[in-house]
Amino acid sequence: MRVMERTFREQLFFLLLCASVLKGDCRYIENNEISKDELYSFFNSELKRETTEELMYRRPLRCLDMVAVEGQFTFTAERPQLSCAAFFMAEPNEVITVEYDNVDIDCRGGDFITVFDGWVMKGEKFPSSQDHPLPLYERYVDYCDSGALRRSVRSSQNVAMIFFRIHNAGSTFTLTVRKHINPFPCNVISQSPEGSYTMVIPQQHRKCSFSIIYPVEIDVSEFSLGHFNNFPQRSMPGCAESGDFVQLLGGSGIDTSKLLPITDLCISLLDPTHMKIGCDNTVVRMVSSGKFVSRVSFSYRLLDSQELQTIKLNNVEDFCFNN
Fold first, then answer.
1. Which of 23, 98, 198, 234 lies 20 to 30 angstroms, CA to CA, from 162?
2. What is the C-alpha end-to-end distance of the chain, expressed in Å?
3. What is the largest CA-CA distance in the chain?
4. Which residues pair with residue 81 across a beta bridge?
5. Domain 190-313 in the same topology as domain 58-181
6. Which superfamily, per CATH, for 190-313?
7. Which of 220, 233, 207 is nearest to 288 (CA)?
8. What region does 71 belong to: left with phi over 0, alpha with psi -120 to 50, or beta?
9. What is the CATH number of domain 58-181?
């Protein structure tokens, strides 16, 4: 199978193996022998079900792991593990709670478990500091610092992660991961390279993004910003001055502040906007002043290898292949 035709799960597997974590201090990734079949099984729809406490899904947590289901996850160190991370993911309309159940680590000896509100990959953060409602320092919650005062941490979007460092064999901890409905999602990483989505900001001063870690074709079918509803749609270079606009961004990282703008829209749509974006990460980002109800609907599908070869000749997409 060609590289550009990998499923989203395969790319996550690759990104996790290449990720530099632990607040930029990680210099290597432990070889945890995570097989693709094991990683993909976490996404199995049969596991995505509501469970009682008695029937809660349980399994060991690995030093490098991906978790897309609710359940209890226990890590027990067989040897010193100094650079570990687990990535949690939910549906676009859900947020994640990470609860500490049983923790037996040596905080004074340098062990730590830190929950991060979002994802960190290759030194980049999602959501970016510009788009997240909390300052960066509040997005890190360390068990050794908070202890019994904060046994549960809730994410602001559908992704979260933990960093942990364990020095002594036999040290262990257990986490319970739960998902909760989020009526107005803001900042989403898509689980799939194909689908459709409607983003709504209900009169709130926010910056929200929908990230598709794949080269895709995007169709923006509906776009409504209250103050421009009676005007024809157009793309404008000065949309940021209006205070309410939608951006299409592209690039290779997950930090939206480091992606390159492809086009800005700040006038409500009468006709669909159609675009093929050959970047590793394609983002629909909506900025709202909070004065109006803002709404954008779009669909997306994975580009095949022939389409990618064709758009390499398009000047708008060149930066996606040169970075």
1. 198
2. 23
3. 66
4. 166
5. yes
6. Spermadhesin, CUB domain (2.60.120.290)
7. 207
8. left
9. 2.60.120.290
Chunk the chain into consecutive blocks of 10 residues (it has 323) and report each block's average pLDDT, rounded to whole numbers: 44 46 37 40 44 78 96 97 96 96 94 96 94 94 82 95 96 97 94 93 91 93 66 51 85 93 75 83 92 91 88 60 51
Question: Taking the complete model, does pTM exceed 0.85, yes or no?
Answer: no
Find, among 176, 171, 163, the residue nearest to 103 by Cα. Answer: 171
| Residue-range domain boundaries for the chain | 58-181, 190-313
8 Å CB contact between 113 and 192:
no
Nearest to 69 by CA among 57, 54, 61: 57
Q: Is the peptide bond before 80 cis (omega within 30 degrees of 0)?
A: no
Residue 254's nearest CA partner among 89, 140, 135 is 89
Name the token pair of 39: 């990683």
Q: Residue 148: its pLDDT value, please?
A: 62
> 51 and 37 in contact (C-beta within 8 Å)?
no
Nearest in space to 267 (alpha carbons), one of 298, 293, 242? 242
SS3 string, the chain, reads: CCHHHCCHHHHHHHHHHHCCCCCCCCCCCCCCCCCHHHHHHCCCHHHCCCCCCCCCCEEECCCEEEECCCEEEEEECCCCEEEEEEEEECCCCEEEEEEEEEEECCCCCCCEEEEECCEEECCEEECCCCCCCCCHHHHEEEHHHHHHHCCEEECCCCEEEEEEEECCCCCEEEEEEEEEECCCCCCEECCCCCEEEEEEEECCEEEEEEEECCCEEEEEEEEEEHHHCCCCCCECCCHHHHCCEEEEEEECCCCHHHCEEEEEECCCCCCCEEEEECCCEEEEEEEEECCCEEEEEEEEEECCHHHHHHHCCCHHHHHHHHC
> Which residues are within 8 A (CB) of 305 and not within 5 positions of it... i.e. 6 or more apart?
2, 4, 5
Quick one: how far is CA 199 from the chain centroid?
A: 15
On whether the CB atoms of residues 124 and 254 are closer than 8 A, the answer is yes
